[in-house]
Amino acid sequence: MIDLSGVTKSYGPKVAVHGLDLRVPAGELFAFLGPNGAGKTTTIKMLCGLLFPTSGTVRVGGFDLRTDGDHARALISYVPDQPFLYEKLTGREFLQFTADLYAMPPGRAAAKIDEVIGLFRLDEFVDDLTERYSHGMRQRTVFAAALVHEPRLLIADEPTVGLDPKSIRELKTLLRQLADCGTTVFLSTHTLDIAQELADRIGIIDRGRLLGCGTMADLRKQASMDGNLEDLFLAITKEEAAGV
Amino acid sequence: MGTELPPVADQAGLFRRLRGRLLRNGLRVALEQGRTRLLTLAATSVFVAVFTFAASNYLFNQLAKANVPFKGMIVEALFDVLFFTLGTMLVFSTGLILYASLFTSPEARYLLSTPARADRVFATKFQAAVGFSSWGFVVLGVPIFLAYGLASGVPWYFYALLPAYLLGYVLLPGAVSAALCLLLVRYMPGTRRQFFLAAGAVLLAVGGVWAYQVAAGLKKGFVTGGRELDDLVGQFDLLRSRATPSHWMTRGLMAAARGDPTGALVPLAQVWSNGLLAYLLAAWLAARVYRSAYDRVAGGGGRKRVYGASALDRVMGGLVFYLARPTRVLVVKDFRTFRRDPTQWAVLLLFGVLMLLAAGNLRQYYSAGLAVLDAYAVSLMNLWGTAILLCAGLSRFVFPLISLEGRKFWILGLTPVSRDQLLWGKFAFAATGSVVVAEGLILVSDLVLGLPWEGVVLHALVVAVVAVGLSGMNVGLGAYLPTFRETDPSKIVVGFGGTVNMVAGLGYLVVVIGVMAVPFHAAQMTRVAGGTANPLLYAGVPVGVAVGLAAAVLPLRAGARALRRMEF
């Protein structure tokens, strides 16, 4: 589903992502980890077609984001760390707009809107203007909109920020179910517990370079140590900082 | 081999429905929660329109009654200049709004991560930007032409064609501006500073040569009694050329006024066809370069600049020494934000330099004994220029300050500064800065002109009253009519609250300068008052000072009350 080949992205003299090669097959839940400024958000923005690589190619569902971006983006849902909602639309109107934007047939759209309203418990406020929503309500609405058009790839940047423990639990279950049903989930997070608990594979990026990529077992082997993901993450990024 | 192609939405219809829904919901909220504000805004717009209509009607009637020779040519020239000026302003304002909404708004980021087509996103933003930047054009333009029509007894189709002309005319400058904005962002060299300096130098050089030629034409005209006025008129050939859109407007409307429907329809077709073609070209360009331009803006680049304290910050802090330290810190914070944004002060600097150049240049005329342009007339013009510059500058930079604090108000809420102090701090910042700048400008230009000391002192006082009053109005109304949802200051300024503030400011200028300075200048220019010592000439000064105090205090009190009640 995701194919990044030799991707480099520079901001002027600063190289944010350096020669990144990464393939994520359909139905995989991939966790993308790294310290602040490691290049995670830049990579995600290239996956959505918001940024273009300085060199290399980014493909989603076989479509090149540079040359065939509109088709690629039709397969994607992106939930950024600071999600956007139209303040003067109700949650339901925003869900309808999203369904229409992705050209869903009206009957199917109506059914899916009802389904995500129930799934994310939006009933109580879905007909209020979103300008009155709390952060948690906004986050749940954005997730509902992200899933209403049944994307083939869900990209989420720090999705649990601002959610209460119950909502986090529900979100984790949902993400796992989505992946099990064939949706590819690309998850960027600093919450290592979630990554360890949910991810099929984990990628660790630091200073624009992919330092490690694989299952927990692969990462343990690479770091030559046992332990949880936090230990592995610190060991791998420390090695890089030390120039090993 | 790609995945099967997903279905494509009717995006034009989708975005049209979205805009309609946003407008409907916004109006409903405004009616439910802020009826008084909405009525105030509507009443202000009506007031501006009625005032413009009355003033224009009077002038056109005078022109007709006085049977001024070549009055048709005069009106035509006035319309040419009016459309050219408005068109130029539309180019700049639309470009600025479009840049913010296409490249820095959260909505643009959201839409660009969806299958929304780049040209469709552009079209939506373009329509919003043109609407934002041109509604003032309609509020001011329609009454002028209605007044002209009534004074001149034009046929009915003049009125019928008027909206079509005005609507058509906003398309072309808007589309040109949009195309320039896209091209600049996409292809501007990495060395932006050098690029802007070079572009500014070229513009200044071209403008300077043109201004010199106009001035030379004026001078020759006055010295030789009129034959060389043709030279002067020749300098405005560009505005009157058949290829200039502003002249199509003038030509068409004048033809409609004369009762020549064919002559009116051809320029209308020119306006619309060229506007639509320019829009199509801009949309075509957007389809090709918008996403890569966005990538370029988001990518940033260039050398990392290190920001630090400046001696100017200490000067600003010193100028408001009388404030409590926490308020002083806020004043310096506002000043630092201002000086670090060249787009804010560069325009003021440019206007200031141009005014001083004009003062220096015009001195030559009255030195040569030209009664019509004597020092009093020129200095009154300078006073107006300085006051309007202050009005525009404060409306643009000070009015949005409270609105822009909205999203980070919780930070200020945690500091040991009360909301009243916050407001007074912004007032101190605005009043100090504007008094320093305006006094400097008016004193230098009066001294260049060699105005007698009575005039210099009077101007210094008028400018101080104008600066303090406008500062109070901008800060007070900025707190009374804030727009916390908007992060783009240029949109805050052209919104309803900003327009109310701008109009109130212009009205205030008329009153203060009218009562404080106009009697003195009128007497000197007509030489009927027997010198500058007549105390009656200064009778309006205390009235102006009282109006100035009221203009500063009343909005500030209203703003402070509103700010105290606000919940963030």
Your description of this structure?
The complex is a heterodimer of chains A (244) and B (568). Chain A has 2 domains: 2-75 and 151-241, Rossmann fold (3-Layer(aba) Sandwich); 85-150, no CATH class. Helix content of chain A is 40%, strand content 25%. Chain A contains 9 helices and 10 strands. With 568 residues, chain B is mainly alpha-helical. Chain B folds into 2 domains: 33-296, no CATH class; 342-568, no CATH class. Chain B has helices at residues 11-33, 35-65, 71-104, 106-112, 118-152, 156-187, 192-224, 229-234, 237-240, 245-258, 261-299, 311-319, 325-339, 342-367, 375-397, 400-405, 409-414, 419-449, 453-480, 489-494, 496-516, 518-526, 540-565. In chain B, helix 6 (156-187) packs parallel to helix 11 (261-299). Classes of the chains: A alpha/beta (244), B mainly alpha (568).
CATH architecture of the largest domain in chain A: 3-Layer(aba) Sandwich
CATH homology superfamily name of the largest domain in chain A: P-loop containing nucleotide triphosphate hydrolases
Oligomer: heterodimer
Low-pLDDT residue intervals, each spanning 5 or more residues of chain B: 221-229
Count of spatially separate domains of chain A = 2
What pattern of helices and strands is seen along the backbone of chain A? EEEHEEHEHHHEHEHEEHH
* Unreliable residue stretches of chain A: none
Beta-sheet strand percentage of chain A? 15-25%
Q: End-to-end span of chain A in angstroms?
A: 32 Å
Q: Count every beta strand of chain B, where a strand is a DSSP E run of 2 or more residues.
A: 0
Helix/strand structural class of chain B: mainly alpha
Task: Briefly characterize the structure.
The complex is a heterodimer of chains A (244) and B (568). Chain A is α/β, with parallel strands linked by helices and 244 residues long.
